[in-house]
Structure to design on (420 residues):
């Protein structure tokens, strides 16, 4: 861990964990708010606290089993520090009472192998059952183990500001351990978690934080200079900026989203990037007239659809406790509507890419199958073939399937389709 345990650090971690367990907001927002309220905490202290509370969110079911019915934020945190991080009695002595020492010894002695499979995997029952309906149980355990690990910090180089080699040289000269990503031609993976948002390369738009798997979606779209392109669910614009960069700021990229606050974040990133071909557009729904006016005119459309986000559990472990089987069904209805609306923008011969960061076929293959059954003028293009044509060699299948245990990325699904 990034700092030595002290009573003050433990108190902050327990307070933040209590807030997280009661919150309905995304965990990263809750953590950011807490750190803004406690600006006296240094970088190492924040790293310790965040690492500890996110570990509890990842492993909450098995940690609760170790608590043996006496589950509260303090006990969950002690169990995580003792059982997951391996802190010994001497290292925990500053925060541990004698009675808690005996309790923690029992918690460490628990035979985890005898717990139910969903508890061992730290998954809710509904999600474990859904995955077992699609994959063998031993593979589900492997997937869960990978998703229960913290994600690395990936950067994407802005090709308008420089090359990946130049960025790597700069990072190396400053003692930052970094390497080229395995697949994305613009990706860089950092060995640690430096405060990159304060680094000059970030501030001047030379790099953005973006998972390598997310970067590959832009290469599936494969936009060319001078084309008309849309990021249909742009959000904060990570993939929008990638598309604009691949086009060398020539042509036009429409960034559609229904949330004004997300587009506001995109505009700040856009100002750093140096791109002039990105046009954020606030819409009220996928049926907005501003979308309809572009029907049949766009060369390429990316639909990174609203989804359960379960492929990002390494970064957002709270999602598995906030989603449900019912919410996945509701998302499927929304995804079908958005994909159908986005398809109307694609010209004859144009490309449509449907993507999610979900693990579940209900949000992935089933949505695409229903779309293709209703839109006979679209055909699938093998994703692996699209990437290979750009010099990206990766075993990902006809429909892109990325996994943390196979590719070291967040889990992504994508189908590349072209209009006849």
């Amino acid at each position: 861990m990034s700092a030595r345990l002290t009573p003050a650090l433990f108190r902050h971690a327990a307070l933040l964990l209590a807030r997280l367990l009661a919150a309905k907001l995304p965990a990263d927002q809750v953590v950011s708010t807490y750190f803004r309220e406690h600006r006296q905490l240094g970088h190492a202290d924040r790293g310790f606290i965040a690492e500890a509370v996110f570990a509890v969110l990842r492993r909450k079911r098995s940690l609760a089993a170790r608590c043996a019915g006496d589950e509260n934020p303090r006990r969950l945190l002690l169990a995580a520090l003792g059982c997951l991080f391996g802190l010994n009695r001497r290292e925990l002595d500053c925060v541990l009472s004698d009675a808690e020492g005996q309790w923690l010894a029992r918690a460490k002695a628990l035979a985890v192998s005898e717990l139910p499979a969903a508890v061992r995997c730290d998954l809710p029952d509904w999600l474990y059952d859904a995955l077992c309906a699609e994959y063998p149980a031993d593979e589900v355990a492997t997937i869960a183990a990978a998703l229960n690990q913290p994600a690395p910090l990936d950067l994407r180089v802005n090709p308008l500001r420089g090359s990946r080699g130049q960025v790597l040289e700069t990072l190396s000269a400053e003692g930052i351990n970094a390497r080229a990503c395995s697949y994305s031609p613009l990706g860089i993976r950092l060995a640690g978690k430096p405060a990159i948002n304060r680094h000059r390369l970030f501030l001047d738009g030379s790099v953005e934080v973006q998972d390598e798997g997310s970067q590959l979606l832009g290469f599936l779209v494969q936009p060319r200079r001078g084309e008309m392109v849309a990021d249909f669910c742009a959000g904060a614009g990570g993939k929008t900026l990638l598309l604009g960069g691949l086009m060398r700021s020539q042509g036009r990229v429409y960034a559609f989203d229904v949330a004004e606050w997300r587009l506001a974040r995109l505009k700040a990133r856009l100002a750093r990037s140096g791109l002039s071909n990105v046009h954020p557009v606030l819409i009220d729904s996928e049926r907005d007239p501003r979308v309809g006016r572009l029907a049949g005119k766009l060369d390429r459309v990316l639909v990174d659809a609203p989804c359960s986000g379960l492929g990002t559990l390494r970064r957002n472990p709270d999602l598995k406790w906030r989603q449900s089987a019912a919410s996945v069904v509701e998302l499927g209805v929304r995804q079908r509507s958005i994909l159908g609306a986005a398809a109307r923008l694609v010209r004859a011969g144009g490309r449509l890419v449907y993507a999610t960061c979900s693990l579940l076929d209900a949000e992935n293959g089933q949505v695409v199958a229903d779309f293709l059954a209703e839109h006979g003028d679209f055909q699938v293009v093998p994703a692996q073939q699209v990437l290979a044509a750009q010099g990206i060699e990766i075993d990902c299948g006809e429909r892109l399937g990325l996994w943390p245990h196979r590719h070291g990325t967040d889990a992504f699904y994508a189908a590349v389709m072209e209009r006849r």
The chain has a mean pLDDT of 95. The first strand starts at residue 153 and ends at 157.
